[in-house]
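Much of what follows relies on a compact textual record of a protein's fold. Here is one such record, which you should read through line by line:
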Amino acid sequence: MPSKRTLIKTLLAGLMLAALPAFADAPPEGMVDLHYHRPDGAYEKWGLHAWKRAPGASDQPLDGVGWFNPLPPTGKDDFGVYWRLSIKDFGSTATVNYIIHKGDSKEQKGKDMAFDTKEYKEAWVISGDANIYKSKEEALAAVK
């Protein structure tokens, strides 16, 4: 049986996740959304490690982001959780480099992932799937 402390932590995490804002609209100009779906609905402690990669320079995590301090989700919608990111934070390449992870457990087969914001304004990721989908419909079709 779980301890009282574990139950309280689980309840608080659930309340925090429920309090995330839900956006139905596409991201505004200069922003990009990365959507993440888990069939089990268990998003607690999953975060986003994101960085910019400039040609000829070493990778630089976004401000305030570290492996042990990933970005928490920005919001939650009917697909799952998502991160709303500023394109300018990724430098001149405007390429979003990321890993969705919970501690050392990594999504998308543990690979460093990236997508070009000139091609994607929203990207869709499914737990256990290494693909990046360009639309919610395409991602949902892959779930079935």
